[in-house]
Amino acid sequence: MTANGRLRVLLDGTALLGRHTGIGRYTAALVAELATRADLDLTVTGFTARGQLALRAAVPDGVRVRGGPVPARGLRAAWQRGAWPPVELLAGDADVLHAPNFVLPPARRAAAVVTVHDLAFLDRPDELAPANRNLPDLVRSAARRAGAVCTPSRAVAGEVVRRLDVPADRVVVTPLGVDPGWFGAAPPTAELRGELGLPQHYLLFVGAAQPRKGLDVLLDAHQAELDLPPLVLAGPAGWGPPPATSSRVHPVGYLGEEALRTVVAGATALVLPSRDEGFGLPLAEAMAAGVPVVCSNLPALREVAGGHATLVPPGDVTALAAALITVSGSGRDPTGTARRRGHATRFTWAACAEATVSAYQMALRDP
Q1: In this predicted structure, what is the pLDDT of residue 82?
Q2: pTM of the model as a whole
Q3: What CATH number has the domain bearing residue 114?
Q4: Average pLDDT taken over every residue of the chain
């Protein structure tokens, strides 16, 4: 604790470096909320050979950044073998260490908290990016050592208890939030449509082209129904096979937050055909923008959708194609739009931060 009783929190901000996808956006929003709290003294560190200059630019004013350039891959290999080097040696002392991206560094004295976003890597380790092939061992170790494990949904919490053998009273559900800007998102301007080559009407997929996102199923379903609107793919390349482009499939690549909001707001529907999800942030954001959603019938997506999305069996091309035909012909129902937006208001980053601080307090009480 600091002299005035503030809790010293050291948070791994490595995910803040580079383009922000799901975990990067979660980390950025969480850091922004934690930085406003009078009961915390927040420090962010990064495990990267690039050093801390980019990290300082990625955190709010007043947030301390500590640590030097260290190669992340080498550190992971060392941590897989044992408890050296401890995080205090790299970034200084803290009361609580929070690892928001699966991998928990060893600590000498700090109480440890780790966020586990999903457990897809346990079922399909072969689909992990090459740099993450040791993730299963690292996450199992993190779950054993953490005083508290955060998960984005009750669905993932249950899986962590069952599959990682973590006691239920050490798991804290910290649902992700929706930035208020999503509730007022407007469709793309003519200028942005021209810049991105957007059709007037389109279905939208948001996410990296990684295997568990089910993009292959979506492409097959879209190809099977020629009456469907064109399909826009927004997101980084990922590490899966690149999608085939055509006159009906339009990859627009990675979009910044502002552009992404408008592209989502202009969509006929957002499609999330994943084989596995821990929360599904694009689902919550699309609902906030009033956009209909078609998604896989997975526990976490059912939980987040709360009855406000069209659910289809994961991997079922025929069912997905039929659902897309239905939603594409339905138009925007004002009542449905209002209900989706109302449901999305329950997801706030302030609530996520509050639940996360409760995890910090839990970890401090852990013997």
Answers
A1: 63
A2: 0.91
A3: 3.40.50.2000
A4: 88
